[in-house]
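Weekly structure sync - notes
Attendees: PM, LS, DV (DV joined late)
Agenda: review two folding runs queued last week.

Item 1: First target. Sequence and structure tokens pasted below for the record.
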Amino acid sequence: MSIAENKEEDFVGQFLVNYEIQELGDVLRLNRKREFILKQIASGSIAKFTLFLHIKVEVQILELSKQRLSMTEEPIDEDLKTDVIDILKSRVNELYNMLFLLFPPSITILKSYTLFCKKNKLLNECSTTIKILLTLPQPNPELYEHAAEFEANCRKNIEQARQYFEEGMRVHGNKPRELHTSRFSMEVENCGRNGADSSECLECFFKTIKFYEDKHIVLFWEFFFCSLRFPKIEKLHAAIADEIIKIYKRYDNIWYTVQENKFIMDGIETEVKYLLKKDSLPVWEVLINCIRECYPDLIWMMHQKAACSRGKIAKLSRSKILEMLYHDKGLIRCRKEFNKLKLLEPFSVELYQTILHFEVNSNIIQCKNPTIPERIRERERQLKSLRSIYSEACSKFGETNAEIWMDYIRFENDYGDKQNVNNLYEESKNHLSLEHIPTMESEFEQFNTTATDDQVPSGCSKNDEDMIQDIIEIDD
């Protein structure tokens, strides 16, 4: 480490101690850790996850410093304040750039980096880094898409965003539909919100559809609902509707009316009935995503209708209903709906997994050692209820599904009674059909290898990217 870097580190360390952000011992330990990390980077021996984890530590120091400075009532030298925050921001930015140089670019980490830059007003630095990243061999389409969205939304640089979309389509042969839909969405946004000329939207639309000779209706739905967010773009609405009508005559009078120039609500119900009959899950998911943008109040109605049908869409919608209720009404309301939905055929293991996820993550279960008597009793009642749901799920699906047995085992290991683990394993082998027993044995062996008292076992080994995603979700 250079003399200048040592002085910088001492300066920041003194600030952290003076403002009671860290104790001196913690500062010294972090300095030693930082030096060790930099040596590993220099030698190329550092693991991706290790470096990312250290970046999150440095980000936390930055956020704590900003928070402390904003809360202090004593006068602060503005130059000191600026210098410290700039050093901390620069430190994180440099570490991210080292991460990008050492390892193949990842959309998960790039999103984390752009979020950091947005929070800390480093948009130009972020733009420069992204430009370098996209010169690396064959970046995946998601990187181009995210780069374009960053330029359009954060820097308002539409021309640069268009260049990234064009480059992504050129590199990947115009295949990834996400690039086309995101480009179109950007043009619509630019036109509808910023008053740009609608000719760019029309040009983008017609340029895109020529690559889809089969006239894929899913793509048209995405375009149509995207454009409907801005009623004034009448020419674009009409152009897309005309293409839809050319493909399927039945969309005439369903999707578009010339007199009113709007989407007909009856058309949604008609399309829902049609899709439920065909049980086309990919198309259903696209329709749901599109309608959520324009008519979010209709989502509940669509899932309710779908839940009473039969097939893949029905199973998905029942789980979605639980998710919506959990977030809007809470766990108690969610439980009541589960008890109704579980009676509907075809039975769905996903429905059980959804309610179990919410139950296991409740505060009562997560607090493993409550001390208040009332809390202890409540936790025992909830554990009993959870075991009942797990047992029911294993009884219904446990003949062909090793995963539900492993979920039950992990639950007992982490939150219930560890003594039940081996009993459940033996029970699973008695219940599973012969062809599924090897899977169960393999999963259980891996579980025994990874499970410890201090770590929630996952049932499968995680790579760096999975663990990084876990950290990001926790931070969010």
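Item 2: Second target, run right after the first with the same settings.
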Amino acid sequence: MKYKTKVQTTGGTLSTSIPKVIRDILEIEKGDSVQWEVDLETRTVTMKKLE
């Protein structure tokens, strides 16, 4: 699956939203923690919910 979101400025940092369908699939709720993994070689980012 691929989704497109816009990056916005929030309090001096850049942020983006998590599309509802992804929130529902991963059961992400406000206050949950997520982990961002960046692969500098391929310039890809992976995000996952922390349990």
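Discussion on item 2: The chain has one helix and four strands.
Action: LS to circulate a short write-up before next sync.
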